[in-house]
Design a protein that fits this description.
- This protein is mostly helical and 141 residues long.
- The protein is 70% helix and 3% strand.
- The chain has a two-stranded antiparallel sheet.
- A hairpin with a 3-residue loop joins strand 1 (4-5) and strand 2 (9-10).
């Protein structure tokens, strides 16, 4: 919890911590949130066989993982910082969330897919609040 302000916002020290060294530094609620993010990303792959919006979500998740992988391969695993993950979310998730919000009129939110889509949008929006804060905090360091 020492690495978070009010248990929510990453400290400057945590922002520049390599992602490979984060194990044990994240509180339980942040670890649960990361599991939730992975669940949304994984289920987007399933829905993407039938729904174009799910393809956008899957693409955003895949690009985030790919960017992390490329940075890690080029500059080493310690180059992928905690804030790098936030930056990749900002870069890839923002346009996808904007597109999903724009296309939400086409969704039936009472269907199973509609509920998933609503959860995916809410998850991305909540995550982006923290991601933008982390990127801005890093830039102001």
């Amino acid at each position: 919890m020492d690495n978070y302000i009010f248990g929510l916002f990453a400290t400057n020290e945590l922002l520049v911590t390599p992602a490979s060294q984060l194990e044990g530094m994240l509180p339980a609620h942040v670890q649960l949130w990361l599991v939730w993010l992975l669940a949304i990303g994984a289920t987007s792959l399933i829905w993407s066989f039938w729904k174009v919006e799910a393809r956008y979500v899957a693409l955003a998740f895949i690009l985030t993982f790919a960017a992390s992988f490329v940075v890690g391969q080029i500059w080493g695993p310690d180059a992928v910082l905690y804030v790098s993950l936030s930056l990749f979310h900002v870069m890839f998730w923002t346009p996808v969330l904007a597109l999903l919000i724009q296309r939400r009129a086409n969704a039936n939110f009472s269907s199973l897919y509609g509920i998933w889509l609503w959860l995916a949008m809410a998850t991305m929006a909540i995550s982006l609040v923290f991601d933008y804060r982390d990127v801005i905090a890093y830039l102001l360091m």
